[in-house]
Amino acid sequence: MTTYAIGDLQGCHAEFVELLETLDVDPRRDTLWLAGDLVNRGPGSLACLREVMALGETARVVLGNHDLHLLAVARGGAALNRKDTLDAILAAPDRERLLDWLQSRPLLVRGTLGEETLMTHAGLLPQWSLDQAEALAGEVQAALGSERAGAFLERMYGNAPARWRDDLDGIDRLRAIVNALTRMRFIDAEGRLDFTAKEGLESAPPGFAPWFRYPRADSARLLFGHWAALQGETPGSRVNAQALDTGCVWGGALTALDLTSGVRTLVPSRRR
């Protein structure tokens, strides 16, 4: 039995199938942890959704910002962006079943795989304990599963508040949780998020650093995707953080990390 953590698919269906074949994944034996952003930008978003959903309990998936964008467009009244590749999903005959499945995914998965392990799409604020992060992610999952999910998706977008406070409530609280778990890259010493810099470490604004360069009170293994410019590396990390997004949709590769052996398997992108 092997558990693999896999980086952002973003519609790279052919590479995902090749990766599963290379790993010889057996759904009766193995488990996949997927770091979110199953869809968008790549050519096979609909096929990715169907493929992962068909894996059933074999796949543990966290929501990424592109997954939430799809839900916001389909069920929250948001507009498509020029570079989106979501039309096939929105026009699919099984659209509602796929969206229901996606909307029921969490923002965080946690397990003990030789060591305490936690996966989110973007990372984990150093101010949050593992238990607190799990509880906060559960608040968003509850909102997505409620009768007012559409209203939440409609108001989910926004950069404020940029810093977490325990006394936040309502949509500000939910938005801050979503932003930290699905959009975070650079933060300052107080945990304030920067939403402008999206490239490599050299793009950090003054006073900001990658979230993984701030110490934590625990030694948990933190798995994340979202940041393709890191190319799977976390230089200068002060925590046990492992990056999984190696930019398949941008011409890089799709990565799987064996969570027992630490061995990485990469399938090259078929996109230039």
Question: What's the SSE blueprint?
Answer:
Elements: E1 3-6, H1 13-23, E2 31-34, H2 45-54, E3 59-61, H3 65-75, H4 87-90, H5 95-103, E4 109-112, E5 116-119, H6 130-144, H7 149-155, H8 170-182, E6 186-187, E7 193-194, E8 209-210, E9 221-224, E10 240-243, E11 253-258, E12 264-268
Parallel strand pairs: 1-2, 2-3, 5-9, 9-10
Antiparallel strand pairs: 1-11, 4-5, 6-7, 6-8, 11-12
Helix pairs in contact: 3-7, 6-8
Describe this structure in words.
This protein is α/β, with parallel strands linked by helices and 272 residues long. The protein has one domain: Purple Acid Phosphatase, chain A, domain 2. It has eight helices and twelve strands. The strands form three sheets. A five-stranded mixed beta sheet has the order 3-2-1-11-12, with helices on one face. A four-stranded mixed beta sheet has the order 4-5-9-10, with no helix packed on it. A hairpin with a 5-residue loop joins strand 11 and strand 12 (264-268). The chain starts with a strand and ends with a strand.
